[in-house]
Amino acid sequence: MSGRRFERIAGSFGNLSLSAKGILVVSIPVCALLAAIAVFYDFERQTRDAQTWVDHTVVVRSEIRRVRGQINALEDSIRGYLLTLRESYLEPYWAARKELPRVLASVRKEFGDNPSQLQQLAKTEEMAGAAMTLVESVRQDAAANGFARGAERLESARASIEAVRSQVGVMEAEEERLLQERITAQHQAQHRLELAIFVGGLVGLLGGFAAALLFTRSIVRRVHRVEELARTVAGQSCAEPDAGRGDEVTRLERTLNQTARLLAAQSEQLRAAHNDLESRVARRTAELSQANEYLRQANDVRQALIKSSPLAIFAIDLEGKVIFWSPAAERIFGWTEGEAIGRMLPVIPENRMHEFEAALVRLRTGESIQGDERTHQKKDGSRIDVAIWTAPLRDASGAISGYITIDADITERKLLEEQFRQSQKLEAVGRLAGGVAHDFNNLLTVIMGYVEMLITDAQGSPALIEYAQEIQFAADRASSLTGQLLAFSRRQISQPKVLDLNESVAQSMKLLQRVIGEDIVVLTHPEPDLGRVKADPIHIDQALMNLVVNARDAMPNGGTLTIETANVFLDDSYADRHIGVKPGHYCMLAVSDTGTGMTPEVKSRIFEPFFTTKESGKGTGLGLSIVYGVVKQSGGDIMVYSEAGKGSTFKLYFPMAEAPAVMAETNGRVEELRGSETVLLCEDEERIRKLVYAMLAKQGYNVLEAEAPDAAMRMAREYAGQIDLLLTDIVMPQMNGFELAKSVFATRPEIKVLYMSGYTDNRVNAGWELEANVPFLHKPFTAAGLTQKVREALGTEAREASRL
What is the DSSP letter of 346? Predict the structure, then answer.
């Protein structure tokens, strides 16, 4: 039946003219193409609508996330303000309060086509308004009552904020669902569009093929009849048409295929753009989370740094009111954070307020302070020295809103600097005094020696003996003075022993009772279990005598003199504050009086040699200098406490010795001072060498002179006879006397040694220490003193003890 119908249609088509057939053939595919284009544009419109809804949903989601971001900023800002109470932290808070209503209004505008979301938005706006009201009350409460009250209120505000976040999450989830539905609708519209293109092309192709078929069936018969007639006439077949060229239908097919491929490519690009947008949103979310974590860590580090810093850190506004106060500032100055915040900077003394106001003017211009030293006051009214560093604080616009200050307490450092300067000054004066005393001792040795010989030889001239005795008396006074200088300079020979300070005080007080006077009450408080110290007992007696005499002179109308001993421990903190002191156990000797006391100016100079407050002729000014030298030579320390009109206390600290106390041996006076032994004399000072030679030769000794250590060592090797004694100076150019003794012992192990010196040099520690049984002769000396020491050295086992 279909074949007959097609034949009827073909027959009717065959009755048409050739022009009509051509128009019909062309119009059928064109009509099919137009229909396909109409369908294409309809589906393409649906695709655009679907894309518009997708974009709309993405915008809504972004606005909802902005709502969440503003809520987070609101909470973070109020937290930062509660932690620091700094107004600068409220800038994000005010911005969030201002921006949140606009963002909600924008979301409402986007929700115009979604009643359910509008209902959710209304609920969100109500909850957000309540949360902002509650947070504002927290801020006001914190500004009025401080961090603790604000922190308690913040916990209740967090529940409200979390409820707002939850409601925002509901709207965000709904938009996510709509986004997925609209993306699905977009994909469906795209699929329909591609299907329409395919169907349109297929319909056009089939219509063209049907029209061509109808056209060719009627034409082909005639062509075949003509071909059959032509073949019958020509007896040959027609040529095949050129298959390499395409007609209008082919070109139309190619155009439709290109359009389909173009739309497919655009659809793929749109899908790739959507995926890229999703990945960017995910990356941005991750970056914001990481940035928030970095911000939290930085805030934690800042808080830890401020809490652990030993420096006082505080911030003030342009008016000078405190807006931040660190724990170290509370520890150093005494004011708590609650007492300092909101008031004028309390550390400025009243008499320095004009300087502070002038500094504020400079700081408003952006000027900074770098390490300037100032005097600040503490809560208890005391003053401390501080070094100051400042930096400006700026608001969001870059304008200076205040400045932050770091104060370092340098009171202890300045005290140590003053101690160091005083120590350096005393050391310099001591070196000068020691050098002068050494040279003067050499001169006095010559003067006293020859005067003594002059007295011996001038027995028949009383006037000459009297003159010589006056010279001898003046030389003795000069020798005493040089001894005091050497004691201060710590360059005297020390013969320390392990002794009990209680016994030394008890022995000295027997003699000092005559010096003190009956109008002064003496109190002693000895420590029962006092440790032992290693010191020269003569030096201890000398120091105690000078302190007692000074105390007596400070109490012209009588008073109380207190002498006490105690075991003390000087810790690292004490050692850090006092130059040259080592931590450890010490024995303390304290001498206190109720006399006139000292002013700070006098107290700062009491250890200087020749400094005295007494009238001319009543004091040399060396008493306390000697005390200072004795203590320092023993490795100890001395502290002075005194105020004008309130008396004085001197505390002497001697390092505690581990060895038990040993009583000093005493030698009886040698009755016979003459001798015939051989003495090797080594002295680099020619006048002293000649004097000693004359003194010993006069007493019958055989003296070998050596002007230098190398000459003495040569004599010790080359002299054929026995050498009984080496008499050597300690300080000499080539080597000291101890080193010379070692060299001589190598060739003559049986030789005895006697050392002599006017002072020692710092080339061997701070001073030389001799054991108790090592003979030593101090310059200046007399002929009797020389010969007695020679006899003592020849009669003791000095050789073994002097090997150093």
Answer: T
Return the SS3 of 202.
helix
Contact 715, 733 (CB under 8 A): no
The pair of three-digit structure tokens given for residue 229, joined into one six-digit string: 């007639």
DSSP state of 769: B
Under 8 Å CB-to-CB from 282, ≥6 apart: which residues?
A: none
Q: Which helix (H) or strand (E) holds 567?
A: strand 559-570
Radius of gyration for the alpha carbons in the chain, expressed in angstroms and rounded: 57
Strand partners, 671: none
8 Å CB contact between 87 and 40: no
Half-sphere exposure of 240 (CA within 13 A, CB side): 4
Torsion, Cα of 623, 626, 630, 631 (10° steps) = 60
Separation CA 504–CA 496 (nearest Å): 13
For residue 756, what is the enclosing H or E element? strand 752-757
Q: At what angle do helices 18-84 and 248-308 cross, to 10 degrees?
A: 0
Q: Which residues pair with 324 in a beta bridge?
A: 315
Q: What is the pLDDT of residues 756-779, one digit of tens each?
A: 876 533 333 334 556 656 788 877
Residue 494 pairs with which residues in a beta bridge? 769
Q: Provide the β-strand partners of residue 706.
A: 682
C-beta of residue 445 within 8 angstroms of C-beta of residue 780: yes
- Could you tell me whether strands 678-682 and 648-657 are parallel, antiparallel, or unpaired per DSSP bridges? unpaired
Contacts for 273-280: CB closer than 8 Å, 24+ residues apart: 274/54, 274/183, 277/58
* pLDDT of the residue at 33: 66
pTM: 0.34
